[in-house]
Specification:
alpha+beta, 4-stranded antiparallel sheet
Length: 210
């Protein structure tokens, strides 16, 4: 089952790469990321009791799902506010891989002050932008060149803003992102089926050895 899941992931990534290549060929508008985004530096100065999230390689999750903070006093006034549909990423990485996520769980949430927070400009499709940042070969090359560090790697927002992206027309952005979203839904359904089969197999084994 694990092998099947990994094969499905490889196929999914292959098709995403191909779709992004179509977008690159459709239009050669090379622009800097700083011209595509609006950075937000809003701090939670009023100490609002908002969900605290983490940006991971698997997406956005509640920080409490990853860390036990019950016994630790957290000064939430030092956290940034990240509104719904804004991007963020962990600016430090042990592997040199940086994952760009869209916060779409809450109307407003909190994120570590070390996480850059930004939104794309209105004429840009957020999903297309996310897929391009995370999957395009052009971005991977730029991330490799611009990351800093040795044992741990860093990608500052200033370095990120200087990178370039190729944007097709808004119409093409929407078409490509819709296709990728559809592929992702199929992947999620497949994942749920695999999870169910694993649980079913586990229950059968337990009954056999009871």
């Amino acid at each position: 089952m694990e092998k099947t899941n990994k094969n499905y992931q490889r196929v999914l990534k292959y098709y995403i790469h191909k779709l992004l290549e179509i977008g690159d060929k459709e239009h050669n508008q090379l622009i800097q990321i700083k011209d595509c985004i609006i950075e937000s530096k809003e701090k939670n100065l009023n100490g609002l009791n908002l969900p605290i999230i983490s940006s991971t390689l698997d997406g956005i999750f509640l920080q409490s799902d990853y860390f036990d903070n019950d016994s630790v006093a957290i000064d939430v006034t030092k956290y940034k506010i990240i509104p719904k549909n804004y991007f963020t990423y962990r600016s430090m990485s042990d592997t040199g891989i940086f994952k760009f996520n869209i916060q779409n769980l809450y109307e407003r949430a909190l994120v570590s002050s070390a996480y850059p927070v930004f939104k794309v400009k209105s004429e840009i499709n957020s999903d297309y932008f996310k897929y391009y940042l995370n999957y395009s070969n052009m971005m991977k090359k730029q991330l490799y060149i611009n990351k800093e560090g040795g044992t741990r790697y860093a990608l500052s927002i200033s370095k990120f803003k200087k990178m370039n992206i190729i944007l097709p027309s808004s119409k093409v952005q929407t078409k490509i992102s819709n296709v990728i979203n559809s592929l992702n839904k199929k992947y999620e359904i497949n994942n749920k089926k695999l999870h169910y089969l694993k649980q079913f197999k586990k229950r059968l084994l337990q009954k056999m050895f009871c």
